[in-house]
Each structure stands twice: as structure tokens, then as C-alpha cells.
Fold:
Amino acid sequence: MKHSLRKYLWMHAACIGLLPVLVFAQTPDLAENLAACKNGRETCDRSTLTQSELLALALTDHARVVSNCRNGQEPCDHSKLTEREKVALAVADHERNFSSCKDGRACDPSRLTESEIREWSVAARQRNLADCRDGVGSCDYSKLTQAEAGAVAGARRQLNLSDCKNGAGQCDHSRLTAAETNEVTAAEHQRNARNCGNGWDDCDRSKLTSLEADQASFAEHQRNLVDCRSGAETCDYAKLTGPEASTLAVAEQKRNYTACFKDYGYCDRSRLTPSEVEAIMTGQKHAPR
Structure:
């Protein structure tokens, strides 16, 4: 009898000892399930939720339905909306449809009021006028008034002149007047001289004046000198003058000596002079250890 009682008490104590472990093991599962329910995932098991969690979940589900309906997303169940939410949704849908019509996006014009249709027509007319004036979008010249067509012609002529002068866009030289052609020719010459002077593409040296050619050559020489001083791979040492090459050689000899002396940076000891080698040896001999 005592043996059985002792065995029962031992098993009971063991179960009590394992209880926190079991609770701890279940806690993450419950948390994961609650998260799955809140996110509307199929793995949600509502039977494990507490009453307060079910209430909170109902509010979350309702908010998701309202959000989906307002944003035109699925699932949207109108039957789950309150009367006030249905009214607010109808207002939002109407305003969104009206805004889409005014902006030239897909919409349902049949849902617009008469005043909205008039406003939509004005917006469409203005949009077409802007497209024709700027040469973009779907321009319908047949919808322009005579005054609008004249204004568009003037705007397109100015746009073409700007494109030709800047070497960008769609330039049609055949639409330029004699005076405009002269402007464009001068602008093209200046742009070519600037491209050559800066070493940019689209440089035609044959179109440069003697002075411009000299300026472009000087600028190119200066860029090469800077590249050589900085050790850039684009340096062409063959284009340096004698004095420039000598100055660079002296600077490089000094840099190499400093690197060898400080044992820091690229050092080529074969290029050191005897006096530099002696100075380095002397300096290293007296350096603190």
C-alpha cells in the first residue's frame, strides 16, 4: 500500500514539474495561430482563441473588409458593412470614378452627373490642348478651335526651334525660318566648340575656328597633364612637354624616396640614387626600436 502511494505521489510530482514545459511549448503555437487568424490565413484555428481574442479578431476582420471594399480589392463582402460604411463607400467610389474620368484614366462616364460630365469635358479639352501644344500624348487636332490651333502651331514652332538649338528632341530643320536657321547654326557651332573644349563626344574639330581649335588643344593638354600628375591610366606621357615631363619625374622620384624612407606606399628601391639609399640606411639605423 505504501509502495503504491509513493509511486502515485512521484508520478503526480513529475506531471506538475512538466506542466510549465508543456505550457511553454504551447505558447508559441498559440501566438502563431493568433497571428495567422489576424492575417486571414487558412491555417487559423479559431477554436483555440480566447473570448477576448475572438472579439479583437472580429474587429480586425471587419476593418480588413472595409479596407478591401474602399480600395477595390477582394475579398469585399458588402453585406458585412454597416449602413454608414456603405454610404461612405458609395461616396468614395463615385469620387474615384469622377477623378479617373477627369484625369483621362479608365472610368465609367455613365455614373457621372450632368455637371460632372461638363467638367469632365472641359478637362478632356484642356488635356487635348496641352498634348497638342507639347507634342505628347494623343493629340486630336479636330477638337481644337481656330484660336487654339493657331496657339498650338506657335507653341510647336517654338518647341521645334528649342529642340534644334539644343540638339535634343525632335528637330525638323525644314520648319525653321531663315532667321531661325541662323540661330540654330550659331547654337550648333557653340555646342560643338564646347564639346571639343571639354573633351566630350559629338566634337567635330573640322568645324572649329583657328582660335577655337587652339583653345580645345590647350584644354586637352591640360587635362592630360592633370591625369599624369594624378597617375591616372588615361595619361599620355608622349604628349607632355620637356619641362612638364622633367617636373613630373622629379615629383615621382621624391614620392618614391619618401615611400621607401617611411616604408609606406609603393617603393622601387632600384630607382633610388646612392645618396637616397645612404639617407634611408642612416635614418633606419637611428630609428627607435
Observations:
- Residues 18-26 have pLDDT under 50 and may be disordered.
